[in-house]
Amino acid sequence: MSEPSLGRINQKSQTFTCPSCGGRMIFDPESQQLKCPYCDRLKPFHVEKRTPNEYDIRYAPPVSDSAWGDETHTVRCNGCGAEIILTGETTADMCPFCGAPHVLADQSKSGIAPESLISFRITKHTAVQAFRKWLSKKLFAPSKAKKMAALGQITGLYLPHWTYDARSTSHYTGRAGHYYYVTVERVVTGPDGKKHTEKVQEQRIRWEPASGVVSNSFDDILVVGSERLAPRMLSSVQPYHLSELVQYAPEFISGFCCEKPAIDVMKGWEKAQKTIDAEMARLAERDILRHADVAEVNHISTENEDVRYKLLLLPMYLSSFKYKDSVYQVLVNGQTGKTNGQSPVSPWRVLVAVLIGLLILGGLYYLFMSENLTETELYDLNQYLEVSGVLHFLRA
Ligand SMILES: [Zn+2]
Ligand SMILES: [Zn+2]
Hints:
Elements: E1 26-28, E2 33-35, E3 42-43, E4 55-56, E5 72-77, E6 83-87, E7 103-106, E8 116-117, H1 124-136, H2 143-151, E9 155-189, E10 195-224, H3 231-236, E11 246-247, E12 257-259, H4 265-289, E13 294-323, E14 326-333, E15 339-341, H5 347-370, H6 375-387, H7 390-395
Parallel strand pairs: 8-13, 9-12
Antiparallel strand pairs: 1-2, 2-3, 4-13, 5-6, 5-7, 6-12, 8-11, 9-10, 9-13, 13-14, 14-15
One zinc ion binds next to loops.
């Protein structure tokens, strides 16, 4: 059966079929097993406990699509261009990134398969609660937007991340500065208003050329493979506890979806090199400082050897809603539950808050003027203003 608009796949896999009722089992964050959504039967699955493979970047990409598990298929959003990998009978009626309703089956392959992942620990139910709680605290969001947001779907999505290892060696040139002191005479004005000269010590720097070699091994430099989430928002729901990484198995993504990396392995490597370059420059500076008081690195050239990479999947709940032609996203970390997002601000609500604040201030001013307050009462009022959070309220 082909239903191009939803990319539905009809065949059922033996692995995911419920032994009791024949329903399709999906990954259950609570038990960390497969669970049948129809009869609640649980089924554990085997996860290999070995260190994840890392691949030589010179031969990328070495892993075939089939390593995802043979049931994955890719859909593409017409709105924002996101490519999403779905498993089995999971379909996408709506793009999790932009909320667009048109998600088309894509003929492109799923690409490099992930080596390991952090499984979902937070259930969808908990994520929805975290999302609602976050929304209820948004005092300045228009109530219509809140309604739109509450109606929006929340999707459990694995976000692709690359990690890179490298052995890096840098040759640098620069200069090393050494402090020395000279005695200079200075004219100063004394407390009596009369001028006189004084001898003072002044610091100077003697520079000499410096050069050298520094090396370092990098392990698991993390680069996000998604471009559809603002980096600042993404980092606001981090960190992930990478100690909980497990070997990839298709069971983990049953019932969830994955974003296909928008940043490929080589583009990700370019980003990782920026991290490497910054660290190597810091090491070169530290190298000069071992024998100097001040350091300056003017030129550095870095060679990276044994560059290896792997693809990781990290769990995220994502809700996107549209309000007045803009898309707003709310994220819930699928491992820790940390929540953050964007919401529109209603100018009316802000205005009302400002007016309330002014009324309170006006009332207090009247109090000040009409009664003769003692020093302590004035102090108390001052404290009250700060504690009552008039300012905090306006900032929220
Ligand atoms: Zn069942
Ligand atoms: Zn989209």
